[in-house]
Design goal:
The protein is of the alpha+beta class. The chain contains 6 helices and 12 strands. Strand 9 and strand 10 form a beta hairpin. Helix 1 runs antiparallel to helix 2. The chain is elongated and about 175 Å long.
């Protein structure tokens, strides 16, 4: 069966070669007729002298001989020219035009809102083809913008706390160092401070009681501020949901947001109030310890002065603890900055998703296989249409026995079935690294015991010469059949 198909292909190639040489053979036949007549005329008398024949049979014999001579010469000329052409050309009609087909699909799911092109329309690269409904993605952008603003506000608050804590720590350190110096100076004045220390102890104790009473009040304010903050946050979240649903105006959402910010600031102020009350309590207790230390110093002399020095050193440790609190707040500020980066990344992603609602042409060309309409619900990767550009080439499947002398760059004559009266020119661009069977879904396995030798086909890429196809660009389409003839050396 393969031999039969191969014979048919050879016959088709032979017919095409005969058509190419037909004009030349007609010219040769006419020349041969002229030469044969010129030779036959002078030989007639000799034939009459040597072999006398009847007048009636003389003329038909001459015509038969002349016809046989002309036929023999014509056949030999045709055969020579056919052999000469076949030895320098390789032909095949197993060729098709190929081109770039750019598939257009969506990167995101959505509903088609607009289709801006029609079948077979020419489009430019970057031209808007399809527009998806952007409302869902616009809402996501707004949400991420709000989250970014919130993260920036938290970072600013954390930075303010760092500044406040740092200043407090410096003041406490200076105070503790002053207490140490005072304790050293008090060693020489212990006796004079006995009375003053006795009078100062009740006052210091009263301050301790006052400071202890202030701590629960400050904590109660923190609890109240926390409750207000939770209510304001719940109101803000509810108003934000209602605004997204279109149930309330933007002004009401802004009012709820402002109330939320005020509640958050009140909570921060209440927390700082607790810290200040605790600091006052610690200072009051320190005053009592100081008065007792002064009294002990006055009574015991050097020993009491050393006790006061130890208390002052405790103040330094407390200042060191405050510095550690500053480090904690710095870590909170770093976490707030990381939240800003995360919110910014989310915003960038939301904006990118929104940009994907506009589907544009990946290349200039003509629209083909459009299968999208307004209202369609599309998913990620759904094919919408294809863009076919004007860069075309040929893939000719030559028999492996035709590739011996074929090389890239050799000239090619091309005839398209759609344009049979025009011959295009091109050249061999490259030869496939494997036969077509090797790229098939199920390549043949010749080791299975049923081997039959079949001449394989190897794809050869042929590129059109641009001057040759000038004016025919719109008529040359991928998938068209062609016949090619490669002139080999």
């Amino acid at each position: 069966m393969e031999r039969s198909s191969t014979t048919n292909l050879n016959n088709n190639n032979g017919h095409s070669k005969t058509a190419v040489l037909e004009k030349e053979l007609v010219t040769d036949t006419e020349e041969l007729k002229t030469r044969t007549q010129a030779v036959a005329i002078p030989e007639a008398p000799e034939v009459e002298k040597q072999q006398p024949t009847s007048p009636k049979g003389k003329k038909p014999i001459k015509l038969i001989l002349a016809a046989l001579g002309v036929g023999a010469v014509a056949a030999s000329g045709f055969g020579f020219r056919w052999w000469q052409y076949a030895s320098t050309h390789q032909e095949t009609d197993n060729a098709q035009i190929a081109g770039h087909v750019h598939q257009v699909s969506t990167r995101i799911p959505g509903t088609v809102a607009q289709v801006l092109v029609n079948d077979n329309q020419f489009v430019k690269q970057g031209q808007l083809l399809v527009k998806l409904d952007p409302q869902d993605y616009q809402s996501k952008v707004q949400q991420t913008e709000a989250a970014l603003a919130n993260a920036k506000a938290q970072a600013e608050a954390a930075q303010a706390n760092i500044t406040l804590t740092s200043q407090t720590s410096s003041a406490q350190t200076n105070q503790a160092q002053g207490n140490v110096n005072a304790a050293l100076a008090a060693i020489s004045t212990a006796q004079a401070a006995v009375q003053e220390a006795k009078a100062g102890i009740p006052t210091a104790q009263a301050q301790v009681r006052s400071a202890e009473a202030a701590v629960p009040a400050a904590q109660a304010q923190v609890a109240q501020a926390e409750a207000n903050l939770q209510k304001a946050q719940a109101d803000y979240n509810r108003y934000q949901t209602l605004y997204q649903q279109g149930a309330i105006a933007r002004q009401q959402l802004d009012t709820a947001k402002a109330a939320y910010g005020v509640a958050q600031a009140q909570k921060n102020a209440a927390v700082q109030g607790v810290q200040q009350a605790q600091a006052q309590l610690a200072a009051a207790k320190q005053g009592v310890a100081k008065a007792q230390s002064q009294l002990a110093q006055a009574q015991e002399g050097v020993a009491s002065a050393q006790a006061k020095l130890a208390a002052s050193q405790g103040g330094l440790q407390q200042a060191t603890a405050t510095k550690q609190d500053t480090a904690v707040k710095r870590s909170q500020y770093d976490a707030a900055k990381a939240a800003i980066s995360q919110a910014q990344a989310s915003l960038n992603d939301a904006q990118l998703q929104l940009s994907y609602t506009n589907i544009t042409a990946p290349s200039s060309g003509r629209v083909g296989r459009k299968n999208v309409e307004v209202g369609n619900r599309v998913q990620t990767g759904t094919p919408l249409m294809a863009i076919i550009d004007n860069e075309n080439w040929l893939v000719a499947n030559f028999k492996e026995t035709q590739l011996e002398n074929m090389k890239p760059g050799e000239p090619v004559e091309i005839k398209l079935d759609a344009l049979p009266h025009h011959t295009f020119e091109g050249h061999v661009d490259s030869i496939s690294p494997a036969s077509g069977a090797q790229f098939a879904l199920l390549p043949p396995d010749n080791a299975t015991g049923n081997f039959t030798k079949i001449v394989q086909r190897v794809p050869v890429k042929i590129v059109f010469d641009q001057n040759s196809i000038k004016g025919y660009e719109s008529q040359i389409l991928p998938g068209m059949s062609a016949e090619v003839s490669v002139k080999v050396k």
